[in-house]
Amino acid sequence: MKDDAVSQPHSIPVYKQLETAPMPATDAIEPEVVIVGGGPVGLTLALDLGQKGYRVTVLSRFDFIAAGSKAICFAKRSLDILDRLGVARRMIDKGVIWNLGKVFNGDAQDPLYQFDMLPVKDQKNPGFINIQQYYVEEYLVDALADCPNVDLRWGHEVIGLEPQDVGAKVIVQCAEGEYAISAPWVIAGDGSKSPMRHMLGLDFEGRVFEDNFLIADVKFTEERPSERWFWFDPPFNGAGSALLHKQPDDVWRLDFQLGWDIDREAAILPENVEPYVRGMIGDDVEFEEEWYSVYTFQCRRMRNFVHGRVIFVGDAAHLVSPFGARGCNGGIADADNLAWKLDLVLKGDATDHLIDSYDYEAITTADENILNSTRSTDFMTPKSLISQVFRDAVLDLAKDHEFARPFVNSGRLSTPVSYPQSPLITQDGDPWKGGVAPGSPALDAVLGDGWLLEQLDGQFVLLTNGNNAVANIGVDGLRVLNVAELEGSEAVIDRYELVPGSAYLFRPDQYVAARWQSPTSQDVQRAFDIARGAPNARHN
Amino acid sequence: MPATIDTSARIARPDDMYQMLIDAHAGLDDQASAKLNAKLILLLANHIGEADILAQAIDIARNGSPSTIDQEIAS
After folding, report:
1. Contacts of A396 in chain B (CB under 8 A)
2. End-to-end CA distance of chain B
3. Using CA atoms in the order A99, A410, A258, B35, what is the torsion angle rounded to 10 degrees?
4. Which residues of B touch A401 (CB under 8 A)?
5. Do A390 and B38 touch (CB under 8 A)?
6. In what order do the strands lie in the sheet with A157-164?
7. Do A397 and B31 touch (CB under 8 A)?
8. Closest Cα of chain B to A368: distance in Å?
């Protein structure tokens, strides 16, 4: 998420020590997938592939989970993904649930604008939770203990990369020496400075922003609503904006814009942080330091994420500004998009062609995240006089005039990205007034005693309502979920405009691949083939 | 088809309206004046409510002639 952070310059603080893996035996069986990087994105992908039974090796140069809170906002879509993997419940139990964001201007007590991150209610997971990144990493590592086929090698650093015709070889350094490991697929999830990216001689394209922000994660006990509070030009920060957001364990994320020409090392000294904290929370509240960090950021991505059999995910592939929580959430979306595609290719049910669609869909996602976070940043820290003038005009007008409030941009928080033009998506042939369009992720709804998303459990699923050809005939390899046979399916029928005879085809990542009002089994077969990247399916 | 900006003369008393715009800036320094203009643009853009019209207005304001309109009609 953030590039070039300054925090604890001498050593990385440790949340939890992990057992350093020994050097592997020379005759060890080759894994099917090597994942470089043990952050939330690499671990999510490892868990998804691990639960599907693949031999996965995860290489992390660290032998610990770092203590900095780092990413704290986990969006509904990430929770939906991690729920499928069995980790979200623990995150939600620990995390702080919030749906509401408020934006303040200057010294005004009333918010200028507020937004709800869960506009459609009655879904299993909340709009957002806040939880320190290290908890998420810990829960993923714990869940991976149930996957003996996933080999977590902490303290193993990749120092060389050799692409091969149908795979890649990585050279690894561990405490006992160097060794090589080859795999048909190598995933680079090694963070914003990605050594893997440098080893392939690749770089980012995009914008670097000249501004510094201070994160002061502090611990104090006070009853405040679990909402995201953002200020433009508050009296307690002459340099610009500020943010207050609650985390578990009475930890609060305080974020302050600092400006460009500052002494970054000095900015995180406790005596320099305290005035900012005091300005926001007052003089009478006792607090203690949890994690201080100064960061700058970039809104950039690699030109392509797929390089032969080496595939980039998360911060290694794309960077955004933190305002919008689109860094870690965007990375988890990458893992979700890639896992089922690797599954089909490794099983032999799809060709490498399917992996090309990861490049398209993950880049579409990254571009939307970059666009949103760039616009938020430009609104919060105007880069020209006229940009400042328009920003101030919006903030002035928004006080009394409803029309100006939607322009107020304190971060457009992460929502799932749709890619209706993806080569895997079949466009609507029937007229639809509502429902969920092809290329968009499933909208959750109550279904019987549970939820629709629980039924979309990592396979292709055909959601139907009764008597169409498919419900009767069936398509090979496709699970049919017929709401006509289920109790309590009214909400699903309503949200999907699922009139009798109609059907939706969902991908394993819960995205809608196609929908029809009265499909034949040939219609479904064709869309199913297209969704699996069959190169000639469109012309059949 | 997108809406097309109307550049025919539509104002009944043009001198009065022109004077209204100038008078609105009386006593303001450059920065306050710029902010007033920005507010006017935002208010009027919202009143019009069509991005196509704003895009054509920007094009004319910036380039002098409505090049994108010609292209759209041609295509």
Report:
1. 35, 39
2. 11
3. -150
4. 43
5. yes
6. A157-164, A167-174, A177-183
7. no
8. 20
Q: Is residue B17 part of a domain?
A: no
Domain count, chain B: 1
Superfamily of domain A13-22+29-96+118-205+301-372: FAD/NAD(P)-binding domain (3.50.50.60)
Residues A300, A302: Cα–Cα separation, whole Å? 7
Identify all chain B residues contacting A397, using CB atoms and an 8 Å cutoff. 39, 42-43
The string of pLDDT tens digits covering residues A180-222 is 999 999 999 999 999 999 999 999 998 888 889 999 999 999 8
Which residue do the tokens 């079949």 mark? Answer: A426
Q: Which chain A residue is nearest to residue B47, measuring alpha carbons?
A: A403
Q: Which residues contact A435 (CB under 8 A, 6 or more apart)?
A: A495, A496, A497, A498, A504, A515
Closest A-chain CA to B39: A393
Q: Provide, rounded to the nearest whole percent, the portion of chain A with pLDDT above 70.
A: 96
* Structural element, H or E, at residue A279: helix A270-281
Query: With 70 as the cut, is the pLDDT of residue A118 above it?
Result: yes
User: Could you list the residue range(s) of the whole structural domain that residue B70 is in?
Assistant: 50-75
A-facing residues of B in 22-41 (CB < 8 A) are: 31, 34-35, 38-39
| Residue A192 neighbours by CB distance under 10 Å | 21
Closest-CA distance, B38 to chain A, in angstroms, reads: 6
Cβ distance A393 to B38 less than 8 Å, yes or no, reads yes
**A247: DSSP letter:** -
Are A390 and B46 in contact (CB < 8 Å)? no
Q: Quote the minimal CA–CA distance from B31 to chain A in Å.
A: 8
CB A449 within 8 A of CB A488: yes
**Which residue from A minimizes the CA distance to B41?**
A390
ipTM: 0.88
Q: What pLDDT, in 10s, does the model give residues A253-278?
A: 999 999 888 999 999 999 999 999 99
B46 neighbourhood in chain A, CB within 8 Å: 403-404
Helix axes A40-51, A133-144, angle to 10 degrees: 20
* Chain segment A9-42, per-residue pLDDT in tens: 447 889 999 999 999 987 788 999 999 999 999 9
* Bridge partner list, A160: A171
The 3-state DSSP composition of chain A as helix, strand, coil percent (nearest 5) reads 30, 30, 40
Give phi and psi for A261, each to the nearest 5. -85, 85
Q: Exposed e or buried b for every residue in B7-40, given b needs 16+ CB within 10 A?
A: eeeeeeeeeeeeeeeeeeeeeeeeeeebbbbbbe
Domain A446-539 grouped into CATH 3.40.30.120: yes
